[in-house]
Design goal:
Elements: H1 13-24, E1 31-32, H2 39-43, E2 46-47, E3 53-56, H3 66-81, E4 85-90, H4 100-113, E5 118-119, E6 122-123, E7 125-127, H5 132-144, E8 148-151, H6 155-161, H7 179-190, E9 200-203, E10 218-222, E11 236-238, H8 240-250, E12 255-259, H9 266-278, E13 288-292, E14 295-297, H10 304-312, H11 327-333, H12 337-347, E15 354-356, H13 358-369, E16 374-376, E17 378-379, E18 382-387, E19 395-401, E20 411-417, E21 419-423, E22 442-443, E23 449-450, E24 454-457, E25 462-470, E26 476-483, E27 502-503, E28 506-507, E29 512-519, E30 544-551, E31 570-573, E32 577-582, E33 590-595
Parallel strand pairs: 3-4, 4-7, 12-13, 14-15, 16-31, 18-26, 24-27, 29-33
Antiparallel strand pairs: 1-2, 5-6, 8-9, 9-10, 10-11, 17-30, 18-21, 19-20, 21-28, 22-23, 24-25, 25-26, 29-30, 31-32, 32-33
The structure holds adenosine-5'-triphosphate (ATP) and magnesium ion.
Length: about 600
């Protein structure tokens, strides 16, 4: 599938699960009060006009990456396809690592990607921490109903009594004390009468369950920490596994799509929601958790923690370094929002954690830009070509289409002169077998004379190589050729001249000096971070190459946009790939290569 266009939206088990639920009317009776709320409030609302509700629940403890983009478009895409709504929910129940900077960056990244959480006249942006009051109330209800208890065992005792895969756990000595005692203790926890870690609230399920997550899991812990949203109001915080199902239920989520590592948590997810529905706190039908495989992309890491390390340790220039697999990195590199969405659609959803080749993302970018990007010429590794029979001081006028398939977009204009820039790789003093670009007259291995090659300079003339000069070290400094005046592209006689190959070029007289950033994979191995090796040792030392290049004159004022915002002009440099204009410190035009013309990385 590498270089074929990727456009279709494959069906997958998540779509099928939703289709089946819709066909059976599983969620048809839901009511919605207009905002997240407990069961009685939702039941008093109108019929929910959203056929399904999904959510993207980032923890605001880092910048979004390509793996999050996957989850975003799965959830927003499914909601869109099935007449539903997707909520943006900040899963900010852990006070320790969450910051406003991340809250803001997540919304910005999602807006740039084109996500919209406004639907049916409501702004569906929610904060899980706004549900702390409900979570607390639900915990008291569980205690009163005998479904939860305050455990004062030490952390070590709890660990020892949990058992393991081969051994059932042991009940806590606090487990069967009266509910009134647990309720009083839990209130003391809330009121700050106990030290951090002194006790926890646990569900009362089954210490012998083969699923260790069902062995009386913790619901609340004491943690004196300032929270970015609720400040110092709370010194107890809900555990993620308790908080998440409640968040889903309060928001009327129908399908709670999460990654595979939560599969073993699903029995608890269902258990806690069922208990709260029995107690009248939540409305049925309850949300359903469905797991899918994480997306891993070859040669990059998708772990916020490791990406943060790359930034903190200076291996990259920030979260929005164009080599980073963050949404901001992809944006700075020049990826378009639609190419990211196409990538997510193309990679579907599966029940295993899959590795997808980075080239699939590149192909999505090419498919997106090919119809729109203006063409241009650039010489990235310049070598001088002197046309010895072209009159000194003269220039001829040349044109090329802005887009070869769209003549209505007009022409680009540039000059041809005695001195040109060509790619260094377009000349070989002693050509290797099958070489079709410039080489001088020389003697072949068998001693016979070989004439200098004849090549078409695209949109220019056919030239014949006559010689070259080199410096003392043997490095080629200049190539010499003669042109055929009658061979100018577009003239009636141009077809009479044979050419072995076609080359790109620029006239020294009007070429514009530019800086070009060329990228390679950030990590050398295909699956970084998966071996014994420290992932630092897997960094590719040549992931960024900055070259002094020349671009055609029309690009002297290419629209650069705001640095890193990915809003500069995108174009295709013939032979070299897709690029975006970006700002530079020295004011020279500057271009990032987004992707090569075809899969340039894997050979
Ligand atoms: P990380 O490991 O990078 O910290 P996370 O899963 O802890 O990621 P969250 O903020 O909790 O990050 O993720 C928000 C949502 O994005 C979750 O529903 C999570 O499952 C999903 N998600 C994160 N990474 C991926 C991935 N690589 N592929 C698919 N979904 C992902
Ligand atoms: Mg997480």
């Amino acid at each position: 599938m590498k270089n074929a266009p990727i456009a279709t939206k494959p069906t997958h088990f998540l779509r099928q699960a939703i289709e089946a639920d819709l066909a059976q009317g599983t969620y048809a009776q839901r009511r919605w009060s207009g905002a997240p709320a407990d069961g009685p409030t939702q039941l008093a609302g109108a019929a929910d006009s959203a056929k399904v509700r999904t959510r993207f629940p980032p923890e605001p403890n880092g910048y979004l990456h390509i793996g999050h983009a996957k989850s975003i478009w799965l959830n927003f895409g499914l909601a869109e396809d099935f007449g539903g709504v997707c909520h943006l929910r900040y899963d900010d129940t852990n006070p320790e690592k969450e910051e406003q900077e991340y809250v803001d960056s997540i919304a910005e990244a999602m807006h740039w990607m084109g996500c919209d959480w406004q639907a049916f006249g409501t702004d569906h942006k929610y904060f899980a921490s706004d549900y702390f009051d409900f979570m607390y109330r639900a915990a008291e209800a569980l205690i009163e109903a005998g479904h939860a208890f305050v455990d004062e065992q030490s952390a070590e005792e709890m660990r020892a009594n949990r058992g393991d895969f081969s051994r059932p756990g042991t009940n806590s000595p606090y487990r069967d004390l009266p509910a009134a005692r647990h309720l009083a203790k839990f209130r003391e926890m809330r009121d700050g009468l106990h030290a951090d870690g002194a006790m926890v609230l646990r569900a009362k399920i089954d210490m012998a369950s083969p699923n260790i997550n069902m062995r009386d899991p913790a619901l609340y812990r004491i943690r004196r920490a300032h929270h970015h949203n609720t400040g110092d109001k709370w010194c107890i915080y809900p555990m993620y596994t308790y908080a998440h199902p409640l968040e889903d239920a309060l928001e009327n989520i129908t399908h709670s799509i999460c990654t595979l590592e939560f599969e073993d948590q699903r029995p608890f997810y269902d258990w806690v929601l069922a208990r709260l529905a029995e107690l009248g706190l939540l409305a049925k039908p309850l949300p359903r958790q469905i797991e899918f495989g994480r997306l891993n992309v070859s040669h990059v890491l998708t772990s916020k923690r490791k990406l943060k390390q790359l930034v903190d340790e200076g291996h990259v220039n920030g979260w929005d370094d164009p080599r980073m697999p963050t949404v901001f990195g992809l944006r700075a590199r020049g990826y378009t929002p639609s190419s990211i969405r196409a990538f997510v659609d193309a990679t579907g959803a599966s029940k295993t954690n899959a590795w997808v080749d980075y080239s699939v993302l590149e192909q999505c970018l090419r498919d997106d830009l090919d119809p729109s990007a203006a063409r241009a010429m650039a010489v990235l590794d310049p070598l001088k070509l002197v046309i010895t029979n072209f009159p000194e001081g003269e220039l001829s006028d040349h044109t090329a289409p802005v887009h070869p398939q769209q003549p209505e977009r007009g022409l680009r204009h540039f000059k041809f002169g005695r001195e040109l820039w060509i790619e260094r790789s377009d000349f070989q003093a002693v050509p290797e077998k099958g070489y079709h670009r410039l080489y001088p007259p020389h003697k072949a291995a068998d001693g016979s004379d070989v004439a200098g090659s004849q090549v078409r300079l695209k949109y220019g003339y056919v030239v014949r190589c006559t010689g070259f000069s080199a410096d003392a070290s043997g490095r080629i400094t200049e190539v010499h050729a003669e042109y055929f005046a009658e061979s100018k592209s577009g003239t009636p006689t141009s077809g009479q001249f044979k050419a072995k190959g076609v080359m790109t070029w620029l006239a020294a007289a009007d070429a514009v000096p530019a800086t070009v950033h060329l990228f390679d994979h950030l990590f050398t191995p295909e699956q970084p971070g998966t071996s014994e090796a420290d992932f630092h040792t897997e960094l590719n030392p040549n992931s960024l190459r900055t070259v002094s290049a020349f671009v055609e004159p029309g690009l002297a004022n290419a629209s650069q946009g705001v640095l890193g915002k990915g809003d500069g002009q995108r174009l295709q440099f013939e032979r070299h790939g897709y690029f975006i204009a970006t700002s530079s410190a020295d004011g020279k035009p500057c271009f990032n290569r987004i992707a090569g013309l075809k899969d340039s990385f894997s050979k």
